[in-house]
Amino acid sequence: MSANLHTALRLAAEGLPVLPLRKGKVPFGNCLACAQNACGGRPNMKTPGPCTCPHPCHGWAAATTDTHAINSTTWDRAWREAAGVAYHPGGAGLTVVDLDNAEAIAWARASLPATRIVPTTRGEHWLYRGAMQGANGVRPGVDIKSTMAYARWLGPGAGTMTALPDVVRALTVRELATVRPVTVSVPAPVGGGKCPHRTPTYLDRGIAMAEQRITEARSAVHATVYRTFLAVLSTHGRCGCLTEAHTARLFTAAQAQGETARHCTDAWTNALTTLGL
């Protein structure tokens, strides 16, 4: 048994969802059965839908505490080739404040409550009890890794882990508040462009409901955003009545939930492609 597999089994038994990392500190790519999302994707990923693949696929979503799966023959090759072990902090109810340089560490020491600290190659991981939406670049050299993210296992660290403070949660709120919505050009009307909507209120109500659906999502945010974009475009995308103001409202709601501009654009593009727009 490799050292990485031994570590993974121990962590999983303690309730920490784990996955193997290949060289470059990144997860293994999807297996042949799931290549190009042929399997239909997996919950919480960009492409919605179930996936029962037994291999360590789909990035952070492969993390598991199932020791039988981790030690199975389907994971054997990944562990033999693994360069390290990663874990899903949010899956264990944790948040990692990833400090990437000396300046970021100095800021954390002056601004954040003391907690467990794990040294990294270039900086430190500060671990807190409590999960939140992860986000990158909330400050120079500072990333938040929690839900829908993975962190490298570099040892237990030192110090007493404390509860996730509001000052950490506020980092993503502050960052997201400054993100400018991405404007997306809506295709020309399809099928003659005749608008079937009785009044502008019908469209406005639909956009408001879509915003609410995204805002109220507490899990599977990627999938919720995609499905919401798909629903809006299936109803309003062919007649040309959607404006950049409408798409900006949807993108703003998604970004407030932790989605990046790139994720929003990808989800919108995928929905357009699916509908043939």
Keywords:
277 residues; alpha+beta; 9 helices
Summary of the model, kept short:
The protein has 277 residues and is of the alpha+beta class. Helices cover 37% and strands 14% of the residues.
Describe this structure in words.
The protein starts with a helix and ends with a helix. The strands form two sheets. Strands 4, 5, 6, 7, 8 and 10 form a six-stranded mixed beta sheet that branches. Strands 2-1-3-9 form a four-stranded antiparallel beta sheet. It is globular and about 65 Å long. With 277 residues, it is an alpha+beta fold. Helix 6 (200-215) runs antiparallel to helix 7 (221-236) and helix 7 (221-236) crosses helix 9 (261-275). Residues 174-192 have low confidence and may be disordered. Helix content is 37%, strand content 14%. The protein has nine helices and ten strands.
- Indicate the overall shape: globular
The stretches of 5 or more residues where confidence is low (pLDDT under 50) are 174-192
How would you state the average pLDDT, rounded?
82
Structural class designation: alpha+beta
Helix count equals: 9
Largest sheet: number of strands, sense, barrel closure: 6 strands, mixed
Helix content: 25-40%
Computed Rg: 21 Å
Please count the beta strands (DSSP E, at least 2 residues each): 10
The sequence of SSEs as H and E is HEEHHEEHEEEEEEHHHHH
> How far apart, in Å, are the first and last alpha carbons?
51 Å
